[in-house]
Structure formats: C-alpha cells, structure tokens
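Appendix B. One record, verbatim.
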Amino acid sequence: MKIAGIILAGGKSSRYGKPKMFEIYKNKYFYQYSVDALKECSLFPIVISTNESLIPYFREDDVDFVVEKDTEAYQGPLFAMYNTFSKISNVEWFFVLSCDIPFITSAFVEKMIRLTENSQYDAIVPAQLGTIHPLLALYHRRSLVKMEQLLAKNKRKVRLLLDEIPVLTVPFSSKDKIFININNPEEWIEIE
C-alpha cells in the first residue's frame, strides 16, 4: 500500500505574526520535523503544500511542492488537502501533518500507518482528551469525492468532511507532546 506524506504549510500564521513554520527548534525549522517524521517512515512522495509567497523560504530539494497561486492561497486546510491530493496519483492514503508541530515523531507516524490495514475507514484521526487532530491524520483517496462536494458548496472546514466519511478515532495520552501546536511567540517561549 502506497502512502504519500503531505505537510500543510500555506497558512497565514496571523496569530503568530510571522510564518511559524520557519521558527527554529534545536537548529531545525518547525516544518522540518514533519518532513523528517514522514521520511523516517519511508513515505513517498513527500509533498509540501504551500503558496507562492512562502515557497522561496523552503530549503528542501528532496521533497515535492504543490504551490497555490496567489488567487488560491489562504482558502483553508480542506482546500489545500484537496488541491494537493488531487495532484498525486498512484497512492491510496495521504498522511497529513501540519507545519507547526516540532514535537512530532516517526513513532507516531508509524503507529498511525499500521491502522491503514483496516480499509473500512476513509480517515484515521488521532484524539487527545476528546479533541481530534484532523491535521495530523490519514485520509484515504476515497475522501477526495466528499472534499470536492464540500468545496463546491463553499464548505471549507475539515471537521465537516469528517462528519461525512467513516472515521477511525485513535486515542492518545494527555501527556503526549506531539499535539502541541504553537499559536503565538509567547506560547513558544513558555513551551521551549
């Protein structure tokens, strides 16, 4: 079974004040932790979904890019997922990671991948303390049809997609740091 790794890295980071994917933790950009976790699990292709204004700042030459034109940018993660998934052929699953999770691990990716053997689900989504994390999840190619239908109705929330497809929710410990999402510089200083 072929699984592509997708890093969503095209948001405004408006609460952070600058593109937080380029914040540095232990000599690496935040987004590079997502790239590395996917690479360590041998996912292929690995694709960064971003926009024209951010593309010059990425340093990777061993990943692919799907670049939203200025007219497509900032339409939300559901659009970015659909736009990216629809450009990748010959894969069954897409492992989506956001670009601002510096504590992501390949062990998490591997654990989630093992669950793809159950083909009755179209999404495999982690949860922590009852909160789901749809931007650290797996989506089957079948989900593209629902994505397209929602976007045609100008419905852009990933949670609306999850209401429409079979989802396996995977519980994780409340102590797991993987899900720490940095929203502003003050939070990052406190966490670091």
